[in-house]
Specification:
It contains 8 helices and 6 strands, in the order E-H-H-E-H-E-H-E-H-H-E-E-H-H. It has 267 residues and is an alpha/beta fold. It binds farnesyl diphosphate (FPP).
């Protein structure tokens, strides 16, 4: 692993308050290419360098999980040539990066409806999943042929199917834990930080359940330009946030102040 550059605001990051799980909507590859009069696929190709850099920085920081939105179920609507290029780039990335992934102890996983992927892509993914399954470092989780709604549908159908097989369908009650346990991300902490590049203010069907309390960070930077400094800025911004999870921050009004307010209201 390379030592961390001191030029980036790395020293400003509080290692005790790192997001456990970072999720990224990698957007803007097409615009990056258009601004250079290049075909869209050139943007995807350049996007792979941003993936490499982001994985490297997250590993160095000691982030527990990184989820990247690589292909949505809606992306099949794109021209066939673009979709095929995305599969080619993904396979190339996996085969080229496997040695580095292994060296860094990364556990590779992916989520989405894998059965609909072209067989060579599925096989390449399975090779890397199997080769890294026993690693204990960062989990690099790729969302491929992924949709947040489809994930919830799959989770609920899984719960129903288990109950049916075990003969307890009639008394079945579903709670939040049961759903979380059947999501593709079961076993991972919910993302603390959701980054979206290219300035779009949308969630795009990504991790709909898991981002309930994620901090959102949208940057104008297009994905192919996203590098270590951009990620560090996002984390620094995250560390300035006051996360209350629906409660009050520790620095909020003291209990005695509320008693006074309640007394005033009662008069
Ligand atoms: C969104 O940009 C990006 C994608 C749909 C694909 C992301 C793929 C990569 C970064 C390369 C391969 C991935 C891995 C994990 C190696 P867009 O095309 O929607 O951009 P636009 O909105 O500017 O058109």
């Amino acid at each position: 692993m390379r030592p961390i550059s001191m030029k980036a605001p790395f020293h400003m990051i509080d290692p005790a308050r790192l997001p456990a799980h970072i999720a990224i909507i990698m957007d803007g590859n097409g615009r990056w290419a258009r601004r250079r009069n290049l075909p869209r696929v050139a943007g995807h190709k350049a996007g792979v360098d941003a993936v490499r850099s982001t994985v490297e920085t997250c590993t160095e920081l000691g982030i527990q999980a990184l989820t990247l939105y690589a292909f949505s179920t809606e992306n099949w609507k794109r021209p066939r040539a673009e979709v095929d290029t995305l599969w080619r780039l993904l396979r190339l990335y996996l085969s080229r990066e496997l040695p580095q992934i292994l060296r860094n102890g990364i556990r590779f996983t992916c989520m989405g409806r894998m059965d609909q992927l072209p067989a060579p892509v599925r096989e390449e993914l399975e090779t890397v999943i199997d080769a890294t399954a026993r690693n204990s470092g960062m989990c690099l989780n790729l969302a491929i042929n992924y949709s947040g709604r489809a994930e919830l549908v799959d989770a609920l159908n899984g719960i129903l199917e288990d109950a049916r097989l075990e003969g307890r369908l009639r008394e079945l009650r579903i709670d939040e834990q049961a759903i979380a346990a059947r999501l593709y991300t079961a076993g991972l902490p919910d993302p603390d930080l959701l980054i979206r590049t290219s300035g779009e203010m949308r969630i795009s069907n990504f991790l709909l359940w898991q981002i309930a309390y994620a901090e959102l960070y949208v940057t104008e930077t297009l994905w192919p330009d996203f590098r270590r400094a951009d990620l560090l800025h996002a984390i620094l911004d995250y560390q300035k946030r006051d996360r209350r999870f629906g409660g009050l921050s520790p620095a909020g009004p003291a209990e005695t102040e509320w008693i006074e307010v309640a007394g005033t209201l009662a008069r």
